Amino acid sequence: MGWQPVVSLVLLTLLTACMSATGSTRVESAPEETTPAAATSTATLTAELPLDLETGWQRRAPAPTPRSEVAAAALDGRIYLAGGFGAEGETLAVVEAYDVTEERWATVAPLPEARNHLVLAALGDRLYAIGGYSVGLQQPSSSVWAYDPRVNRWSEVAPLPTPRAAHAVVALTSQLLVIGGVGPEASATLTYDPAADTWDVRAPLPTPREHLAAAAIGDEVYVIAGRQGTQNLDVVERYHALEDRWESAPALPTPRSGLAAATIGRSIYVTGGEALNGSGETFGELEIFDAQAETWRQAQPLPTPRHGLAAVVVQDRLYAIAGGPIAGLSVSGATEVFTPAP
Q: Counting beta carbons within 10 angstroms of the beta carbon of residue 234, is it exposed (0 to 12), middle (13 to 18) or buried (19 or more)?
């Protein structure tokens, strides 16, 4: 069901008020790489989901550099936020670290080159920044850099076999898994072994897509939603890393792209995203997948709906950071944390 004009107007008014409260900025330029397409009412999609009212969001200090299409990962109690688009639409190299105990931000060594639509993952004692666009939405990159926080330095490691942007990454026990995105042979699933500094190609993603999210529970990786062209998807597919095998999983209740996901215990938390219908709508729905029950439920929505955000878990709390509050090119420094019910 499409949004009625009056609903779109009210939504945009609320988003504008939200930006004022959180220090977000809209960049007046064309939407990213999408054209209008029909959207489905999220109210219809989520009305039957059980609502958990024992949980809640709190705001934290905003990231010093408002941005969207960012990457983030946690290492040793700090959340690292890298790259993305800045307020003028420029591609950023800046990296900022948030100490969750001291609740403050600090600037660390920048990426060797500016990137947007990149991914970041922590494995062992390093961070890995993978792929992305170097300028605007031009040619995807195959660059991979490792960050050592002890010396505050990035170093180049083995590049991706094929360039990627708007993809997803998951850290498993001893390897990184890169899934989906934009680029040649983007359906190929790639694994990186830091010990050998080598890449391998695994079974392809059954439903190719970009602007997707992924999260792992043990050796099972859930690849969630995203888009094909101008169509948002609700598809969820599960990858069994030990068997190199894909299968279908229960669909996400709210189709969306530009979303973020992270794992707490045996549950996957999904939030954010954008509509592709030209309304400017972004999604605040927080939907939680219980891997044991194979069911989705709904919790309190993200206070600042946005897309191109980062979701990171530290100490069993979900941090949603940065992202654009209006579909297309917009930025925010919002940092909001969700604490699940005991």
A: middle
